[in-house]
């Protein structure tokens, strides 16, 4: 009935087309009802969705809308400087349709030009964004390091794919986390945000922009090919409820125009965020220099002073660390609060991990789940959460990059389960891995007991997957 109603509404002004489409629909429906071509039939129940207006979006489309929303909520023009690369090109295509929202798109001749133009736009007072995938991040790394030194907002959207080098352009992977963390020369920290679903790309884009603008820093947003091309129903948000982002541009100090007044201090610090002033070129009294050479604290003059360099390096790190104070408490999915094992994930593994956890719980077993959006800095409460569990399992589509970071920071025996097939995890396989770890810590019956689950061929962990113990 809903399909017929849609066709009636869609072609109401053209009765011939309406009737032809409805007739074709009935013909196909009747054929499907009477044919015996399918040995098995599946009935899909309506999704349990909250009331509201929905549309279907892919991750890249949601990311594009999130960038537009962030620009609108901050009152900034949006500038995208990008070079086409799979699977990120759709963001360039989508944003190019929205000039009416103050969006400027620039298809550059190469990756380096794209990020350079985006950083220049940020210097000029716009929200500068560049989109790419792993190989492009390698090329952009010098300019991203420059953005760290300049302390300007810049969004780098890395839609990850299989690597290294050209790798698997049309396949998914989570292998750029350590590149995002450490892929620049020197001590060049930057925040990292990772969406967990196609729809979440919208909110993650706004969050990444909030951090970039508020803390005057480049931010890496790590999506991947699975999210980029995957789609799901998206309930249209209440625009009035979206967070307002304050750019807080520097304004001219009348005293600075006086010969007796103090000159503008481009590297003075906000005491709470440690952000430096965002001074738009051409603003009277705010003339200053920028560049890749180390700056003197406060004045922004070029400085080779050892103590000043030490101070600036530590200040840039402290600024990124301070972002953790603005993050909400970590959500822990532990219904009874007494599970002994926690599954920790990030990015697009959210769906398979969640489905695997639900399968295990249907067996009567207790297991907890935490999924991270912020990967740098990590949430302040994460260490205490991890310490509550006898075992922490970290499934990733790489060779254990988050597990490596968690072990190093919290000194816990995180167990890594990895897969690099270029494909998402399967819930059945993850569920069996979870059961095995639960048995290992005595939180599930052994396989030879009556209540143990029988392992089927579809549940077996693939030989290419691995569990790693610290």
Describe the structure.
With 470 residues, this protein is of the alpha/beta class. The chain folds into three domains: 2-34; 57-241, Thiamin diphosphate (ThDP)-binding fold, Pyr/PP domains (Rossmann fold), CATH 3.40.50.970; 341-468, Rossmann fold. The protein is built from 14 helices and 14 strands. The strands form three sheets. The protein has a seven-stranded mixed beta sheet, sandwiched between helices. Strands 10-9-12-13-14 form a five-stranded mixed beta sheet, sandwiched between helices. The chain has a two-stranded antiparallel sheet with strand order 1-8. Helix 1 (2-10) packs antiparallel against helix 2 (15-34), helix 3 runs parallel beside helix 8 and helix 5 (111-123) runs parallel beside helix 6. The longest helix has 20 residues, at 15-34. It is globular, with a radius of gyration of 25 Å.
List keywords for this structure.
470 residues, alpha/beta, Rossmann fold, 3 domains, 14 helices
Short description:
It contains 14 helices and 14 strands. The chain has 470 residues and is of the alpha/beta class. It has 3 domains: 2-34; 57-241, Thiamin diphosphate (ThDP)-binding fold, Pyr/PP domains (Rossmann fold, 3-Layer(aba) Sandwich); 341-468, Rossmann fold (3-Layer(aba) Sandwich), CATH 3.40.50.
Estimate the strand proportion: 5-15%
Tell me the Rg in angstroms. 25 Å
Put simply, the count of helices is 14
The low-pLDDT segments are 451-465
Shape descriptor reads globular
Order of helices and strands: HHEHEHEHEHEHEHEHEHEHEEHEHEHE
| CATH fold-level label of the largest domain | Rossmann fold
Architecture of the largest domain in CATH?
3-Layer(aba) Sandwich
End-to-end span in angstroms? 57 Å
Q: Helix coverage percent of residues?
A: 25-40%
């Amino acid at each position: 009935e809903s399909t017929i109603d849609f066709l009636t509404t869609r072609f109401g002004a053209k009765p011939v087309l309406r009737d032809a489409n409805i007739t074709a629909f009935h013909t196909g429906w009747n054929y499907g009802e009477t044919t015996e071509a399918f040995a098995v039939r599946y009935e899909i129940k309506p999704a349990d969705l909250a009331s509201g207006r929905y549309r279907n979006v892919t991750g890249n489309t949601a990311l594009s809308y999130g960038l537009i929303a962030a620009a609108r909520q901050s009152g900034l023009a949006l500038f995208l400087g990008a070079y086409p690369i799979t699977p990120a090109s759709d963001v360039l295509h989508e944003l190019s349709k929205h000039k009416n929202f103050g969006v400027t798109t620039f298809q550059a001749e190469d990756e380096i030009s794209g990020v350079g133009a985006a950083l220049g736009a940020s210097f000029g007072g716009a929200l500068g964004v560049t989109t790419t995938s792993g190989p492009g991040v390698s090329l952009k790394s010098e300019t991203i390091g420059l953005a760290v030194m300049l302390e300007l907002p810049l969004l780098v959207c890395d839609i990850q794919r299989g690597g290294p080098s050209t790798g698997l352009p049309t396949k998914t992977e989570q292998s750029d986390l350590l590149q995002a963390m450490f892929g620049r020369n020197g001590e060049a920290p930057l925040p990292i945000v990772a969406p967990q679903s196609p729809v979440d790309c919208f909110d993650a884009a706004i969050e990444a922009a909030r951090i970039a603008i508020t803390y005057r820093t480049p931010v890496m947003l790590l999506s991947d090919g699975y999210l980029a091309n995957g789609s799901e129903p998206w309930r249209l948000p209440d625009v009035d409820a979206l967070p307002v982002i304050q750019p807080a541009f520097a304004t001219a100090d009348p005293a600075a125009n006086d010969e007796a007044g103090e000159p503008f201090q481009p590297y003075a610090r906000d005491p709470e965020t440690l952000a430096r002033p965002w001074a738009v070129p051409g603003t009277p009294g705010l003339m200053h220099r920028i560049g890749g050479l180390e700056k003197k604290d406060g004045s922004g003059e070029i400085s080779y002073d050892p103590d000043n360099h030490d101070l600036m390096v530590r200040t840039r790190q402290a600024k990124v660390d301070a972002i953790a104070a603005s993050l909400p408490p970590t959500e822990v999915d532990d219904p009874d609060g007494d599970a002994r094992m926690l599954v920790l994930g990030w990015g697009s593994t959210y769906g398979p991990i969640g489905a695997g956890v639900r399968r295990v719980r249907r067996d009567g077993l207790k297991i907890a789940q935490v999924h991270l959006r912020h990967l740098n800095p990590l949430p302040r409460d994460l260490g205490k959460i991890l310490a509550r569990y006898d075992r922490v399992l970290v499934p990733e589509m790489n060779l254990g990059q988050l597990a490596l970071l968690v072990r190093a920071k919290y000194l816990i025996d995180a167990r890594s389960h990895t897969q690099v097939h270029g494909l998402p995890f399967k819930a059945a396989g993850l569920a069996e891995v979870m059961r095995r770890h639960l048995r290992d810590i005595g939180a599930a019956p052994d396989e030879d007991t009556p209540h143990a689950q029988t392992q089927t061929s579809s549940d077996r962990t693939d030989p290419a997957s691995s569990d790693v113990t610290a």
